[in-house]
Amino acid sequence: MSGPHGGFTSTVFVLVEPSHPGNVGAAARALKTMGFSRLVLVAPRVAHVKTDPEAIAMASGADDVLAAASIVPTLADALTGVQWSVAMTARVREYGPPQMPPRTVALEACREAAAGDIAIVFGNERTGLSNEHVERCSVLAHIPANPAYSSLNLAQAVQVLAYELRVAYFSDEAGDAAQTGRAGHAGHAGSTATSSETLGPRASSEEIERMFVHLENALISLEFLDPAHPKKLMSRLRRLFSRAGLEREEVNIVRGIAKHILLKVPPGGR
């Protein structure tokens, strides 16, 4: 049973192209045991996976989580409305968003989930997440398993992250309660509390993707980016911006710059 921390309802677990119905059911069970309920399936191999007997059997009482799972065609659809996302991967990536260990991800999730929806994204059992999928996410994480045998089942990986998030959310909740108590004492003593800088609303996944399309078109018009030989320019820019944790206003600024570049230099060159 989850506590009142909003993180439990703000956190979405996304399985991209899962192959085995049993893993989907076991993932639903893993989520329910840790107090989570939001599951999204991206283009599952078995179209009617939610009613598959193997999935229902492996859900083992988490039938409600399985039945309520959303099925969408693309990762972009799964990340609609999400402002911060984590790509779970077993492979080291040359490019992509900044990398964090799961425990650090969970601590960061406390702050991000308080402001809006977040997503933990897992890849296909055999191939994992593609580079394109990874680059859509805010950060990258992998579970530091035994290097001599690091093969984790999909549902096991979901369980590890769900546990880390549960611990972090409840710890954060306890810390907030203690901080409130200290603030109350200070108030009675005549002290005043100072507030930290208020950040603007974080940009959503789809807003950031539209920014990258706009920026790429502007760079092509400047002939700074050759679409025939793009190399890793956009991947590096994605990595740069993902480290910044973009706010909505900052995305609008970048798109404004791109817009004015395109007004001065139409697509097709100067």
Short characterization:
The chain is an alpha/beta fold and 270 residues long.
Model description:
- There is one protein chain.
- The chain has 270 residues and is α/β, with parallel strands linked by helices.
- It is 49% helix and 10% strand.
- It contains eleven helices and seven strands.
- The chain has a seven-stranded parallel sheet.
- Helix 2 runs parallel beside helix 3 and helix 2 runs parallel beside helix 8.
- The longest helix has 35 residues.
- The radius of gyration is 21 Å and the shape is globular.
- The N and C termini lie far apart (61 Å).
- About 4% of the residues have low confidence.
Please tag this protein with its features.
alpha/beta, seven-stranded parallel sheet, 270 residues
